[in-house]
């Protein structure tokens, strides 16, 4: 199990439960290892089928997450959101969301956060149902799954932005 801390509703920090898909080791011979070098053989399968996310059902049961909503991101990103983007934390994060079904990790940070806000501003049961149905289709078609540093850029939000003075 992998248990990173994430920011949830109201910026409250909580622990997300996931199956570990990567080696803990991040460096070898003083060089940073890419995600593809750290990926476990079984990890690629877990990620392609989104099975690494299944333990997050415990987070849903505990009320920290919902089925649909913006994906919970690392706590270290909090100072890097714009004044508008921080509103992604006005609701509980989800197992899947509008950004995930519109490109997942292949989206730029700006696009991903824009989709999150679009969801927050238009939240409704029909919208959730639509996202859920698209999620099922995408999981079974294995689409939009990539490895950072190989298929998609290896950039974290805190590496491409300066902190927002209102939150740093």
What would you note in describing this structure?
The chain is an alpha+beta fold. The protein has one domain (5-160). Helices cover 33% and strands 10% of the residues. It is built from seven helices and six strands. The strands form three sheets. A two-stranded antiparallel ribbon has the order 1-2. Strands 3-4 form a two-stranded antiparallel sheet. A two-stranded parallel sheet has the order 5-6. It is globular. The model has no long low-confidence stretch (mean pLDDT 84).
Straight-line N-to-C gap: 31 Å
Provide the structure class: alpha+beta
Characterize the largest beta sheet: strand count, sense, and whether it forms a barrel: 2 strands, antiparallel
Number of domains: 1
**Helix-strand topology string:** EEEEHHHEEHHHH
Which percent range fits the helix content?
25-40%
- Low-pLDDT parts are none
Name the overall outline: globular
Based on CA atoms alone, the radius of gyration comes out at: 16 Å
Q: Averaging pLDDT over every residue, what do you get?
A: 84
């Amino acid at each position: 199990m992998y248990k990173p801390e994430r920011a949830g509703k109201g910026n409250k920090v909580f622990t997300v439960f996931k199956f570990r898909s990567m080696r803990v080791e991040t460096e070898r011979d003083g060089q940073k290892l890419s995600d593809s070098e750290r990926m476990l053989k079984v990890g690629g399968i877990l990620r392609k089928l989104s099975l690494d996310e299944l333990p997050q059902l415990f987070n849903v049961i505990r009320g920290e997450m919902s089925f649909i909503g913006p994906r919970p991101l690392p706590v270290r990103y909090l100072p890097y959101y714009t004044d508008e983007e921080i509103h992604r934390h006005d609701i509980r994060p989800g197992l899947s969301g509008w950004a995930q079904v519109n490109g997942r990790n292949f989206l730029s940070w700006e696009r991903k956060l824009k989709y999150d806000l679009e969801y927050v501003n238009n939240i409704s049961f029909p919208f959730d149902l639509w996202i859920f149905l698209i999620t099922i289709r995408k999981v079974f078609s294995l689409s939009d799954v990539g490895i950072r540093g190989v298929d998609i850029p290896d950039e974290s939000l805190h590496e491409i932005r300066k902190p927002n003075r209102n939150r740093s």
